[in-house]
Design brief:
Blueprint lengths: L1 E3 L6 H6 L4 E5 L2 E4 L4 H18 L4 E5 L8 E4 L2 E12 L6 E9 L5 E7 L3 E5 L2 E10 L4 E5 L5 E6 L11 H13 L4 E8 L2 E9 L3
Antiparallel strand pairs: 1-2, 2-3, 4-9, 5-6, 6-7, 7-8, 10-11, 10-13, 11-12, 13-14
Length: 205
């Protein structure tokens, strides 16, 4: 049997003073509750997880604050800005930033148009030097960091799934320097969970 909560004695009727849909089951009142709140919580949780998952790769920044030489995320890729211009669209339009940038790993030129006052994202970019020690036939380089820890999971550029511009030249240089037993560092650029050897640097005593 269905009845309203306000038609019975109990704390619920006294709190709201409004009718609530419910039913009596085995002498116990049960309210019929809708579920939007539960779905809303789930959506909020998913949104939080999504934001949190990308937190380590990039950070929010106002588009108008990004300058030439700075970094920006375009279509999910970390890029370095080679040119940026501001323009207005119409009499009452907002200023917009036109970015021309280069993918820091592939060298591909990309463009984006973002309102100057809107939030966009910039990648965290880091460069680390490793001492090069050896390279195997599959292109995996053995390196050592400043603390003496070694790793063998870095590939020379030509052995990467998508070799970057200049991959053959840089890879040959690394192999030649190892063959000549020269002491040198490889400079590794890191961003968005990608690591790539960008250059070499001869060690000085």
């Amino acid at each position: 049997m269905y009845e309203s909560a306000s038609s019975r004695n109990g704390p619920h009727g006294g709190e709201t003073g409004r009718s609530r849909a419910g039913k009596c089951v085995d002498g116990r009142w049960e309210e019929v509750r809708a579920r939007p709140v539960q779905l809303g919580n789930m959506a909020e949780e998913e949104e939080f997880q999504s934001q949190d998952s990308g937190a380590a790769d990039s950070y929010p920044i106002e588009a108008g604050q990004i300058r030439k030489g700075g970094f920006i995320m375009i279509k999910g890729r970390p890029c370095k800005v080679s040119d940026v211009t501001s323009s207005k669209t119409g009499k009452h339009g907002h200023a917009k930033c036109h970015f021309v940038a280069i993918d820091i790993f592939t060298g591909k030129k990309v463009e984006d148009l973002v309102p100057a006052s809107h939030t966009t994202y910039a990648p965290f970019v880091k460069k680390v030097e490793y001492q090069a020690m050896d390279v195997d036939e599959d292109g995996f380089l053995s390196v050592m960091d400043a603390d003496g820890n070694t790793r063998e999971d870095l590939k020379i550029p030509e052995a990467m799934p998508q070799p970057p511009p200049g991959a053959d030249e840089l890879s040959k240089k690394i192999k030649d320097m190892l063959a000549e037993q020269k002491e040198f560092y490889v400079i590794v650029q890191m961003a968005c969970n990608i690591e790539q050897i960008m250059d070499v640097k001869v060690m000085t005593s």
